[in-house]
Amino acid sequence: MARKETAADAANPGRLKQIALTYKMTRRADKKIGLVLAAVGIVTFGVFLAIGFLIGHPIYLGILGLLLALLATAIVFGRRAERAAFGQMEGQPGAAAAVLDNIGRGWTTTPAVAMNRNQDVVHRAVGKAGIVLIAEGNPNRVKSLLAAEKKRMNRIVADVPVHDLIVGTGEGQVELKKLRTTMLKLPRVLTGPQVTATNDRLRALGDLMSNMPLPKGPMPKGMKLPKGSGPRGR
Question: Which residue windows does the record flag with biased composition (Low complexity) (predicted)?
Fold first, then answer.
């Protein structure tokens, strides 16, 4: 029992520290975050307290208002923190892969199935919507990467629908913050067993990282991509 209490006590400072770090990160991109959170909390609490006085139950409505004020503040903080995080990640190599890691259940993601020397990269996700190729990098260059990857996959999964998305802020591109939502809105056309079968067939293709002759242990400084690690199928 003592061990459980110790673990719980140790977890609380960790959570508080994480919240504090998240707030500092958010404040760097959102200078008004403190005023916004204070306003949300005060207004929510004030409305319920006022209703409490009107109906003759200020204590009950005050307690309820306090709880809902904390909840509303937490929701607003979470959304603005997420927006700030996406803003800092936008345009950074590998940002899409970080989003795909948190897309949720039902999807199997494989980062960097194709890459070129300019660090344009294509990631792959498989779910009930079929196969989704997510490209990040120069819009003109990634089109050839996407075409090469589709051609490579077509040999073994020609019967599975393939969607391609380019992450960016230009016309016809998907903003990083909308990537997860866009993928979840794709129509579901595969059953669970079909998704499993598709993953098994794609696994036979391997991916860029598993096929690269990298040594075990830390990456040596100054190591470059070997020849032949450019776009697939070109």
Answer: 219-234
